[in-house]
Amino acid sequence: MTPSSNSSTLSEADIFDVLSDPRRRHVVRVLERQGGAVSLDTLARRVAAAENDIRLEAVSYHQRKRVYTALQQGHLPTMDDCGVIAFDSDRGIITPTDGLADVERYLSAVHGDGRSWDNYSAIASTVAVATITAAWIGAWPFSLLAWFHWTVVLLVLFVATATVQTGALPRVDLE
Questions:
Q1: Would you give the DSSP letter of residue 73?
Q2: Average pLDDT over residues 2-8
Q3: Where does the chain cross the membrane (predicted)?
């Protein structure tokens, strides 16, 4: 696997390959939250905690070692080959690259609760139509503003949502 030579972005096949393994998805989440380079030991401990759904302090030596070995021998070299990370195996340092943003964008399309942006957009559109209709027919409290003003407010909210969704603005992590 190699990054696309025509651009700095990863190919869709590389992104899907990285995301195909749950452990690599945990690596992406940890690196995204870390915001910079991380040691292999720290990464292994955090991934083990996520995989076992336990606190960081509760990770046993065996849990960490099992993850450490798998990351060092398989997952991190694969992610390095794709251009998602830079893995310095001699020093045990993992540094995110620009390719991580491509992978994270795919990963964030579906949140942990299973809602996708498609579902969010459908719900938001339904609420918008109901709000504008209620304002247009004069239903209280929507009658406090003209239906045109509600339309402008909702349009601004849709533009802000689209801007966040496309990555033009940083996403706010509420976890």
A1: I
A2: 41
A3: 120-141, 147-169
Q: How many CA atoms lie within 13 A of 57 on its CB side?
A: 0
CA distance 167 to 119: 18
* pLDDT > 90 in the chain, percent: 39
Q: From 1, 16, 2, select the one nearest 103 (Cα to Cα).
A: 16
Residue 135 near residue 150, CB atoms below 8 Å: yes
- How many CB atoms sit inside 10 A of residue 106's CB? 15
CATH of domain 12-108: 1.10.10
- CA-based torsion, 88, 16, 169, 30: positive or negative: negative
> Which tens digit of pLDDT belongs to each residue from 35-70?
889 999 999 999 999 999 999 999 999 999 999 999
The first and second tokens of residue 94, run together, are 């993992």
The residue count for the chain: 175
- Verdict on whether the full-model pTM lies above 0.85: no
| DSSP 3-state of 98 | helix
CA distance 27 to 31: 6
- Cα gap 14→2, rounded to integer Å: 8
Q: Is the predicted pLDDT of residue 111 greater than 80, yes or no?
A: no
d(CA 25, CA 103): 9
Q: Write down the H helix ranges in 109-146.
A: 117-137
